[in-house]
Write a structure and sequence with these properties.
- The protein is α/β, with parallel strands linked by helices and 490 residues long.
- The protein is 35% helix and 19% strand.
- The strands form three sheets. Strands 7, 8, 9, 10, 11, 14, 15, 16 and 18 form a nine-stranded mixed sheet that branches. A six-stranded mixed sheet has the order 1-6-5-2-4-3, sandwiched between helices.
- α11 packs across α14.
- The protein is elongated and about 80 Å long.
- The two termini are 30 Å apart.
Length: 490
């Protein structure tokens, strides 16, 4: 899909699309067309009620400018959010593909809907992401992504905003494309190769720590979880260094279990195929780092991805084992399916020790308990820093990638104390499972401001997931737009 900007709606196009508010009698931002077309548009506006995502197609066989007009409902003005244009733009793009068009145009509504650059970002993200389909393994592919023209009043920064939005959307799509890969096509080594490819194309430093070095350097969590699989574990590190030499970086960490059987504590067979999505945290970091480098942000950012395959076997770690983590603390293993916190603890401790970061943020499909608590549309968040929470919340509002903070008091820290080691890798029964997992991670960090984001419910579309045009079935790429907004605001 190619995207360009025009300043007039009186241009020849296969499909001219405009937005309509509920119970309105006009199309937002659409100028006067030829007389007959204008009459047909006015009649169609009266016939439709402008409800959210409602579409009305008007054929204009002899139209001077457009062959068809598409009116798209935005719903009530008082209910507009920063996601409305994104959602409706996605519906428009899908309709253009359904009509098998080569190109279409969208008239950007006036700035009362959103600040102009934000508005353009929503249109670009909604259209590009809605046209993504995971068809790598299909013999017959859709292969139809029509080009988009956005009709918008002149602005000095609009082209720059468009380019930024394309990079952000492509980062999310890149994350989806990797996260959707099946386990036989995506091992820890595969993720390492993706990271190497990103670093070569975008001039970032890349380091891959493999099995023997992981064990030698004391990555006890990564080593233990990965030892049951023939596919060896990897620690993937990407560095984007465009800030000042002495500036402390932001460290991003993502859990990447390329397939999670649960290990010896074997999961039920139902929906185990979805455990290919247990790598989504790491895929999110790859998408972010790709976009950060392409945006050429003048900051220092480090992406760390501990990647393993959690399999049962003769060499698998067991319930009852005691392991030593990278920071020297010991952990009693009570359940081998609570593996994500073990590999994340190693990665967080490594990130803090080697980079002395100004902040750390981790993403992980960590606990089913997060789905019980918050459902499949909101991610859980735990932190040791109110200041960092405030910034992440602001970016959540900007991108509509929704998160909700959960508490982390000493009572929860006490719930993971072990009688035979420093910690145990699960809490007391099923109570507060998301928080006790975060408590385990908190033990890996000393003083660095840190946010943990549990994306178990939002990383891929599930039965109860709210349908969004820009999140077709499969991986959602949750977190890419959120953190890129946070980083750009720095």
């Amino acid at each position: 899909m190619k995207i360009k900007i025009e300043n007039s709606s009186t241009k020849k196009t296969s499909l001219l699309c405009g937005f309509v508010l509920e119970n309105s009698d006009k199309v937002l931002g659409l100028g006067k067309l030829d007389g007959k077309t204008s009459l047909e548009i006015n009649q169609s506006v009266k016939d439709m009620d402008g409800k959210l995502e409602q579409l009305s197609l008007i054929p204009v066989p002899k139209g001077k400018y457009a062959k068809r007009i598409l009116l798209a409902g935005l719903g009530k003005k008082e209910n507009l959010t920063k996601d409305t244009i994104r959602l409706v733009s996605g519906k428009i793009a899908q309709k253009a593909r359904e009509l098998k068009l080569k190109e279409f145009s969208i008239v950007a509504p006036p700035s009362f809907v959103a600040e102009q650059n934000s508005l353009i970002s929503q249109i670009v993200e909604g259209t590009k992401m809605s046209l993504y389909k995971f068809e790598k393994f299909k013999t017959e592919k859709t292969n139809n992504s029509p080009d988009l023209t956005i009709v918008v009043p002149k602005s000095n920064n609009i082209l720059q905003a468009t380019k930024r939005a394309e990079i952000v959307a492509n980062g999310a799509i890149f994350t989806k494309s990797i996260a959707n890969l099946p386990p036989n096509q995506c091992t820890p080594s595969t993720l390492a190769n993706f990271a190497k490819d990103i670093s070569r194309k975008n001039k970032m430093r890349c380091k891959i720590v493999s099995k023997l070095e992981l064990k030698k350097k004391g990555f006890g969590g990564i080593t233990a979880v990965g030892q049951g699989s023939k596919n060896e574990p990897k620690l993937i590190i990407l560095e984007h260094n465009r800030g000042q030499r002495n500036e402390k970086p932001i460290v991003l960490v993502g859990k990447a279990v390329t397939f999670d059987t649960g290990g010896i504590s074997l999961k039920p067979g139902e929906k185990m195929d979805e455990m290919k999505f247990d790598k989504c945290g790491g895929c999110t970091i790859l998408g972010i780092m790709k976009a950060v480098s392409e945006l050429k942000l003048p900051i220092n950012v480090v992406g760390i991805i501990p990647s393993v395959e959690n399999m049962p076997g003769g060499e698998s770690y067991r319930p009852g084992d005691i392991i030593k983590l990278y920071n020297g603390k010991t952990a009693e293993i009570l359940n081998t399916d609570a593996e994500g916190r073990l590999i994340l603890a190693d990665a967080l401790a490594y990130g803090e020790k080697h980079y002395s970061p100004k902040a750390m943020i981790d993403f992980a499909t960590l606990t089913g308990a997060c789905i019980v608590a918050l459902g499949t549309n909101v991610a859980g968040m735990v932190s040791n820093s109110e200041k960092l929470i405030k910034k992440i919340n602001q970016s959540s509002e900007n991108t509509m990638e929704e998160i909700w903070e959960l508490p982390l008091t000493q009572d929860y820290m006490d719930m993971i104390k072990s009688d035979v080691a420093d910690m145990k890798n699960i809490g007391i029964g099923r109570a507060a499972g998301t928080i006790t997992a975060a408590a385990f991670l908190r033990n890996a960090i000393e003083n660095t401001p840190w946010v943990h984001i549990d994306i178990a419910g939002v990383a891929w579309t599930q039965i109860a997931t709210k349908e969004k045009s820009y999140n077709p079935k499969g991986a959602t790429g949750f977190g890419v737009r959120l953190i890129l907004d946070y980083l750009q605001n720095l």
